[in-house]
């Protein structure tokens, strides 16, 4: 049976909407506690290396400059998931267009294609990187604060998770930069989907790196 979910995603979520989306992500994490199913992250560090190597074959001009910065980030981050942080089932693609709202409340969450087992704080870092920046990849402090506040109202972060969050934000920015860069370099013009700009996610990486340094 297919169930139709009502609602629509928000192009300009308010701070209250950000907080509501954060709270629902935390409830998803809580609801999956004890779930026995396991799935390795299909776009984890091994995939980043493969994507970067493939991009190197076709990158030129601006894409080559982006790839050079990506290589620096790969070398610096190493394995960003080495810490013993709480793990479980994560969405791994909790972007605004995957969260439906109706009458001021979240009515549904869709697109679990990248769902996997991973650090819960990494899922939060992905979501913050998706919800807390403008179209040019500049941080929106009010949005970042509202989303995290909503999440922690349901599931407070441990101190270790809070300390790891900037590094996990870098990992999230690197992951989406690489997949977008790959899609742009190897885009098939016959496809109707327009490749998304990888540079705006590389800008997010700079933000998270600055937070980690601070």
Write a brief structural summary.
By secondary structure, the chain is mainly alpha-helical. The chain has helices at 15-31, 45-58, 62-77, 120-131, 141-154, 159-185, 199-213, and strands at 87-90, 99-102, 105-109, 116-119.
How would you describe this protein?
The protein is mainly α and 214 residues long. The protein has a single domain (15-213), classed as Alpha-Beta Complex (Aminoglycoside 3'-phosphotransferase, Chain: A, domain 2), CATH 3.90.1200. The chain is 54% helix and 8% strand. It is built from seven helices and four strands; from the N terminus they run αααββββαααα. The chain has helices at residues 15-31, 45-58, 62-77, 120-131, 141-154, 159-185, 199-213, and strands at 87-90, 99-102, 105-109, 116-119. Strand 2 (99-102) and strand 3 form a beta hairpin. Helix 2 (45-58) packs antiparallel against helix 3 and helix 4 runs antiparallel to helix 5. The longest helix is centred in the C-terminal third of the chain and has 27 residues, at 159-185. The radius of gyration is 17 Å and the shape is globular. The model has no long low-confidence stretch (mean pLDDT 94).
Q: What is the H level of CATH, i.e. the homologous superfamily? A: Aminoglycoside phosphotransferase (APH), C-terminal lobe
Share of β-strand residues: 5-15%
Major sheet, described briefly? 2 strands, antiparallel
What's the pLDDT, averaged over the residues? 94
The number of domains is 1
From the spread of the alpha carbons, the general shape counts as: globular
CATH architecture: Alpha-Beta Complex
Number of helices: 7
Whole-Å distance between the termini?
Answer: 50 Å
Number of strands: 4
CATH class category name: Alpha Beta
* Order of the strands making up the biggest sheet: 1-4
Q: State the oligomer.
A: single chain
Unreliable residue runs:
none
CATH topology, anyone?
Aminoglycoside 3'-phosphotransferase, Chain: A, domain 2
Q: What radius of gyration results from the CA coordinates?
A: 17 Å
SSE sequence, one letter per element: HHHEEEEHHHH
